[in-house]
């Protein structure tokens, strides 16, 4: 390949070129307009170092979950020698040590990130849509529909998360599905309230009146006009809630009502090590640190998102 | 259409808002008729019901009494898509009437999709040309537009369904004089080219004189006087409230203000 | 001469964003006594940002050689110090009533919140109702209990002005406060402001697009273009302005007595921009 060709290729990709494309005042397509807007949001987010730290933590968590087999040398569920490999202190082959089942703690933390992410993901994709649909419908249609839906929301809001989860676990048995269900059912009501509040501020605006005048159906207005206005505050709230979800899951795991053994889960790992905390401190300390760091990461990221998406609330 | 048939005829229009404790009679027997192609001004006291008249015609207020015919057809509170299409509105505030998360493209395309009109590309190009916005504006978001550009997008959204009647609620009061001049020139040109009928609400008597053939003056839900624009320009309005408006539009003058009475 | 209420020297406002720096107010200087000062200029010329900078409310980056209210510098005030000034000694009527009023709160509650003073709720309510009456609202009781969307555009604007009146400021910044009012009520509301300037020695900054109104209501006029003050005039002599920009703005204004077929629009000239030092 000639050197000129390769320089030409490099120049085409230098920052000013693509930045100009993204930031142009005259986008040539829907796609470019959207990309430009996303880029501006990203640039504002990236200027906040704490938010970037949060994002980094979340990305590392996701990386850990995806590449778990590559970054661990032991299986999280197959124990080593029950005598020789029990309660090994950090260092050597087991660099975070082993626990009472002779499981490698590093492996269990890494595989445990899959459990945490799965729980977060499942809760987010069930609770957030339910919340936004109920909240915007109640806020936009008003009247008795509003009253009925908000009564329902308040009922669910009154249920404490842990108690409901305990009830589920008692009735249906401990397990991942019940854990997710319990958390999701107690998570949507705040989302519905946020979405409704947001809807009330936009339902009387001229742009909604203009949409009504052009013949748009209520469904179209809800989905195309009102939900986009509710999304930013909802995304922020869901991100901030992720830390809470992890802690709830860990709490239930700690009480023995979460994910059953031998599946790795950080909360039950802490619980597992609590009786040996003085002699074998590493067994509960490391998963505890993991919970702390990840909660912090989601909180920092949520704060950063709020500044970008929802600047009023500063 | 019959030449003598009015484009809009409103008879004894009555609107009462009920907000629980208080009942507001916003319109108390308003009647007027507008010929096809005419431009009709509505001026009057703030809170006198001008916007309410427009919102009833636009179908945004469903509860009213009285008779309204548009192009000979009686208008009912529940109307079909075609009836909705024939009447479009431009709102007072160009900052609040465009969805902040929609591009100009989407704002203009959506009405066409709702009415199942194909040929979106050409219509959009024509309409943007009509309001003198180049294709460069098509994929911008409202926050990337100036007030005057936004108002032109709002006019384009109203025009894209090819309505017969355009309702303009103080379309230039949020704009500076230079942009106001652009928008007024544009509206005059479009009415001519597209054979539109206008109802224009404005507080600026000079704007009404510039754009309208006739005007009605409203106070507390009633029309107190109807006149043509020549009379307005010559200062020949007769009702005392109209005369007060004429005085007030000359500028700030303590003596004149002291003489104002609550007629 | 008594001390001016407000002194502004070389005020600059910049917005930094991913797409570069936007210098929206450039070396603006003026002083304000107990008088009515108008700021006019086309849209985007920096009128509102200048006004907001005085209250420390612009989201942009502010720098100035001097920005002093009643002898006290407004640069680098703490939040606690701002609270003593904002909404008490200096208040602002924002340009857009629809955005400035909380859409889900009753008007009365917003008025009482703005008053934010000690006294019984009943006394405050009486005062708030008086203020609504002062701005010529016909049924203050109803408006007191109404939500913003139940009001007409002009009523919303008058509520904003009433909200300012309950606070009794020393400096009032009014950003197009009367654009949605009919001409009669507009003059009556301006008469109230005029009284405050004359009897309570209030200073008024009045931002407007209406040159005719400004020339009859205010004492002095600042003409802004692209973030700069192009000229400063006696309000009475606004019609005889020399600068082509001001003349252009005057020419765009429709005339009640002799409407023309096509209104002239502004032809801008880049040479109007003076170079900025630094
Ligand atoms: N949704 C509503 N609920 C209750 N009252 C309302 C509603 N909309 C309007 N009103 C009342 O109806 C009356 C007329 O309002 P309208 O908006 O038609 O006035 P307007 O003539 O357009 O005034 P402006 O010039 O100030 O815009 C006002 O008293 C207003 O408070
Ligand atoms: N938050 C912001 N970020 C970036 N630029 C801004 C922001 N707010 C205002 N500007 C820019 O500052 C400039 C001055 O705006 P300003 O609101 O002071 O204009 P104005 O003279 O009040 O106009 P109008 O008559 O339309 O109200 C404009 O070019 C505007 O685009
Ligand atoms: Mg109105
Ligand atoms: Mg402004």
* SS-based class of chain B: alpha/beta
The largest sheet of chain B is: 6 strands, mixed
Share in β-strands of chain B: 25-35%
Q: What oligomeric arrangement do these chains adopt?
A: heterotrimer
CATH class of the largest domain in chain C: Alpha Beta
The total number of structural domains of chain B is 1
CA distance, first residue to last residue of chain C: 33 Å
Fold-level CATH name of chain B? Rossmann fold
Task: Give the class of chain C from helix and strand content and strand pairing.
Answer: alpha/beta
CATH topology of the largest domain in chain C: Rossmann fold
CATH superfamily of chain B: P-loop containing nucleotide triphosphate hydrolases
- Tell me the fraction of residues in β-strands of chain C, as a range: 15-25%
Which consecutive residue ranges of chain C, at least 5 long each, have pLDDT under 50? none
Number of helices of chain C: 10
Q: Helical percent range of chain B? A: 25-40%
Write the CATH architecture name of chain B.
3-Layer(aba) Sandwich
Question: What is the overall silhouette of chain C?
Answer: globular
Number of strands of chain C: 11
What's the number of structural domains of chain C?
2
Domain ABC transmembrane type-1 (chain A): 117-302
Keywords (chain A): Cell membrane, Membrane, Peptide transport, Protein transport, Transmembrane, Transmembrane helix, Transport
Membrane topology (chain A): Multi-pass membrane protein
Family (chain A): Belongs to the binding-protein-dependent transport system permease family.
Features:
heterotrimer, B: 263 residues, alpha/beta, Rossmann fold, 6-stranded mixed β-sheet, 4-stranded antiparallel β-sheet, 10 helices, 10 strands, globular, C: 278 residues, 2 domains, 5-stranded antiparallel β-sheet, 34% helix, binds adenosine-5'-triphosphate, binds magnesium ion, cell membrane (chain A)
Which helices and strands occur, and which strands form pairs?
The complex is a heterotrimer of chains A (314), B (263) and C (278).
Chain A: H1 3-12, H2 15-23, H3 30-46, H4 49-66, H5 68-71, H6 105-141, H7 143-158, H8 161-172, H9 176-202, H10 206-213, H11 218-254, H12 266-273, H13 282-309
Helix pairs in contact in A: 3-13, 4-6, 4-13, 6-7, 6-9, 6-11, 7-9, 8-9, 9-11, 11-12, 11-13, 12-13
Chain B: E1 8-19, E2 22-34, E3 39-44, H1 50-58, E4 65-70, E5 73-74, H2 81-86, E6 87-90, H3 104-114, H4 120-130, H5 147-159, E7 165-169, H6 177-194, E8 197-201, H7 205-211, E9 214-219, E10 222-228, H8 229-234, H9 240-248, H10 254-259
Parallel strand pairs in B: 3-8, 3-9, 6-7, 7-8
Antiparallel strand pairs in B: 1-2, 1-4, 4-5, 9-10
Chain C: E1 6-17, E2 20-32, E3 36-41, H1 47-54, E4 61-63, E5 66-69, E6 72-73, H2 79-85, E7 90-93, H3 97-100, H4 107-115, H5 121-134, H6 140-145, H7 153-165, E8 171-175, H8 183-200, E9 203-207, H9 211-217, E10 220-225, E11 228-234, H10 244-252
Parallel strand pairs in C: 3-9, 3-10, 7-8, 8-9
Antiparallel strand pairs in C: 1-2, 1-4, 1-5, 5-6, 10-11
The site of one magnesium ion has 4 residues of chain C, from helix 1.
Protein name (chain C): ABC transporter ATP-binding protein
Membrane topology (chain C): Peripheral membrane protein
Family (chain C): Belongs to the ABC transporter superfamily.
């Amino acid at each position: 390949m000639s050197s000129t060709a390769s320089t030409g290729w490099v120049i085409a990709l230098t920052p000013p070129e693509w930045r100009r494309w993204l930031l142009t005042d005259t986008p040539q397509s829907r796609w470019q307009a959207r990309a430009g807007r996303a880029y501006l949001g990203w640039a504002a987010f990236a200027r906040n170092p704490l938010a970037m730290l949060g994002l980094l933590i979340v990305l590392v968590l996701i990386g850990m979950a995806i590449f778990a087999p590559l970054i661990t040398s032991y299986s999280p569920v197959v124990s080593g020698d029950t005598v020789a490999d029990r309660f090994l202190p950090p260092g050597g082959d087991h660099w975070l040590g082993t626990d009472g089942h002779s499981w490698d703690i590093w492996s269990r933390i890494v595989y445990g990130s899959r459990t945490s992410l799965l729980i977060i993901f499942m809760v987010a994709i069930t609770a957030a849509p339910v919340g936004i649909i109920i909240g915007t419908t109640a806020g936009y249609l008003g009247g008795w529909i509003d009253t009925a839906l908000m009564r329902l929301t308040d009922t669910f809001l009154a249920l404490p998360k842990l108690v409901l989860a305990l009830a589920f676990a008692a009735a249906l048995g401990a397990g991942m599905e019940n854990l997710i269900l319990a958390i999701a059912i107690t998570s949507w009501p705040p989302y519905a309230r946020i979405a409704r509040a947001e809807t009330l501020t936009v339902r009387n605006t001229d742009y909604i009146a203009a949409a009504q005048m052009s013949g748009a159906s209520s469904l179209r207005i809800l989905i195309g006009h009102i939900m986009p206005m509710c999304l930013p505050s909802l995304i922020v709230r869901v991100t901030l809630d992720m830390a809470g979800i992890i802690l709830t899951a860990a709490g239930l795991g700690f009480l023995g009502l979460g994910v059953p053994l031998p599946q790795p889960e950080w909360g039950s790992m802490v619980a597992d090590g609590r009786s040996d905390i003085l002699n074998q401190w590493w067994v509960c300390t490391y998963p505890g640190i993991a919970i702390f760091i990840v909660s912090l990461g989601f909180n920092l990221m949520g704060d950063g998102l709020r500044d970008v998406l929802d600047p009023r609330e500063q | 259409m019959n030449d003598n048939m009015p484009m809009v005829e409103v008879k004894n229009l009555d609107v009462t808002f009920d907000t629980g404790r208080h009942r507001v009679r916003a319109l108390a027997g308003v009647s007027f008729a507008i010929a096809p192609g005419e431009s009709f001004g509505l001026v009057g006291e703030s809170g006198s019901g001008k916007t309410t008249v427009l919102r009833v015609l636009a179908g945004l207020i469903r509860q009213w009494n009285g008779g309204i015919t548009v192009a000979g057809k009686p208008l009912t509170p529940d109307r079909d898509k075609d009836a909705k299409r024939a009447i479009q509105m431009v709102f007072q505030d160009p900052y609040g009437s465009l969805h902040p998360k929609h591009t100009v493209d989407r704002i203009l395309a959506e009405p066409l999709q709702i009415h199942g009109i194909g040929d979106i590309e050409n219509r959009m190009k024509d309409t943007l040309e009509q309001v003198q916005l180049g294709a460069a504006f098509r994929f911008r978001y409202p926050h990337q537009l100036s007030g005057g550009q936004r108002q032109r997008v709002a006019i384009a959204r109203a025009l894209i369904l090819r309505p017969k009647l355009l309702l303009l609620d103080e379309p230039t009061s949020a704009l500076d004089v230079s942009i106001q001049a652009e928008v007024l020139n544009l509206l005059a040109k479009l009415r001519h080219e597209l054979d539109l009928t206008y109802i224009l609400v404005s507080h600026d008597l000079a704007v009404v004189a510039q754009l309208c053939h006739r005007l009605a003056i409203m106070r507390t839900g009633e029309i107190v006087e109807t006149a043509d624009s020549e009379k307005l320009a010559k200062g020949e309005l007769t009702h005392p409230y109209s005369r007060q408006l004429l005085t007030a539009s000359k500028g700030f003058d303590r003596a004149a203000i002291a003489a104002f009475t609550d007629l | 001469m008594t001390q001016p209420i407000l002194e502004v020297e070389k005020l600059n406002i910049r917005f930094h964003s991913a797409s570069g720096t936007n210098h929206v107010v450039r070396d603006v200087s003026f002083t304000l006594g107990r008088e009515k000062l108008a700021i006019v200029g086309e849209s985007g010329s920096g009128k509102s940002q200048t006004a907001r900078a005085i209250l420390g409310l612009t989201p942009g980056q502010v720098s100035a050689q001097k920005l002093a209210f009643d002898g006290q510098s407004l640069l680098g005030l703490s939040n606690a110090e701002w609270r003593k000034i904002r909404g008490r000694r200096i208040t602002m009527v924002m340009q857009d009533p629809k955005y400035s009023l909380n859409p889900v709160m009753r008007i009365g509650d917003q008025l009482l919140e703005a008053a934010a003073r000690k006294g019984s709720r009943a006394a405050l309510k009486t005062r708030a109702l008086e203020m609504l009456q002062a701005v010529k609202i016909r049924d203050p009781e109803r408006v007191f209990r109404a939500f913003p969307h139940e009001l007409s555009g002009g009523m919303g604007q008058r509520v904003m002005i009433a909200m300012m009146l309950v606070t009794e400021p020393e400096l009032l910044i009014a950003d197009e406060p009367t654009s949605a009012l009919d001409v009669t009520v507009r003059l009556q509301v301006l008469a109230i402001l005029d009284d405050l300037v004359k009897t309570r020695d209030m200073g008024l900054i009045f931002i407007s697009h209406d040159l005719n109104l400004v020339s009859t209501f205010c004492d002095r006029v600042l003409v802004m273009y692209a973030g700069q003050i192009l000229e400063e005039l006696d309000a009475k002599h606004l019609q005889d302005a020399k600068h082509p920009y001001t003349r252009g703005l005057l020419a765009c204004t429709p005339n009640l007595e002799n409407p023309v077929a096509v209104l002239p629009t502004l032809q801008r000239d880049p040479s109007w921009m003076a170079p900025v030092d630094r």
